[in-house]
Amino acid sequence: IMVSWEFFEVTARPATSATKLIFTSTPPQETNTGKFTLEGSGSSGMKVLCVAMSMASREVHRFETDINSKGKFELDVKLPKAGFWMLTYTVYSGETVVEEGAFDGGVTYDERLLTIRMNTKLPETMTLTGNSLTISGTTMAKTKVQCIVDGRYNKAITTNNSGNFSFTIDTSEEGIYNITLVFEKKGYTARRFRCEATREYTAEDQRQ
Questions:
Q1: Which of 43, 162, 172, 183 has the fewest CB atoms within 10 Å, i.e. is most exposed?
Q2: d(Cα 22, Cα 12) in Å, to the nearest integer?
Q3: Please, which residues have CB within 8 angstroms of residue 79's CB and are 6 or more apart in sequence?
Q4: What is the CB-side half-sphere exposure of residue 64 using CA atoms within 13 A?
Q5: How far apart are CA 85 and CA 16, in angstroms?
Q6: Closest Cα to residue 45, out of 81, 95, 100, 94?
Q7: Partners of 54 in the beta sheet?
């Protein structure tokens, strides 16, 4: 069972060109199909190359496309097998490299992986300052998602076709909130995440 996740960012390392690639769709952090599409914009006529490298076998696979006359591109990626993959991109004008970068965090591909995208950062420990905490995100359709907070809160939902889930927890009392999220779907590996959140009153709270 996987017990943590990382949010990732695109980190570009531009070369001599002032024109940068702008991504509107980046690689998922995790996938159970191995398929995804990179989308974005840049200078028309240039070529975008994505290189995926397996961290287990070090094998390398290349995917490329051209930026069209409207300055847009779509680049389909299909990882050949399960594992952890690091991805980089390079932009060419003819044979000249004008930009290169890496997608920080990599992609985990597992056919039994119950994929989750969190809107809320939920590390192993955190400090709360507000009177409520909303935990939300997206997972696969028809997934049972349960949120448990000590004996204070216990709610379970089954996601619809959108895969969206959201829980709002009352954190108005000072103290420790042990939060557990459980995701279950038939045919996929169940996942459980835990966070110890500490509610501390601010100076404004104490004045009220």
A1: 162
A2: 10
A3: 31, 34, 35, 52, 61, 85, 107, 109
A4: 10
A5: 28
A6: 94
A7: 85
Please tell me the predicted confidence (pLDDT) of residue 14. 44
Q: What is the mean pLDDT of the chain?
A: 90
3-state SS assignment for residue 205: helix
Distance CA 56, CA 83 (A): 7
| pTM of the shown model | 0.75
> What is the mean pLDDT of the segment spanning 167-193?
96
Question: CA distances (Å), 48 to each of 44, 90, 98, 108, in order?
Answer: 11, 6, 10, 22
Q: What are phi and psi of 112, to 5 degrees?
A: -100, 10
Query: Do 50 and 78 form a contact (C-beta atoms < 8 A)?
Result: no
Concatenated DSSP letters of 151-180: TTEEEEEE--TT-EEEEEEE--SSEEEEEE
Q: Which residue has tokens 């104490």?
A: 206
Helix (H) or strand (E) holding 109: strand 96-109
Report in angstroms the alpha-carbon separations of 165 from 116, 119, 153, 184, 190: 10, 10, 16, 13, 16
**How would you classify residue 106: left for phi > 0, otherwise alpha for psi between -120 and 50, otherwise beta?**
left
In the chain the first and final C-alpha atoms are separated, in Å, by 44
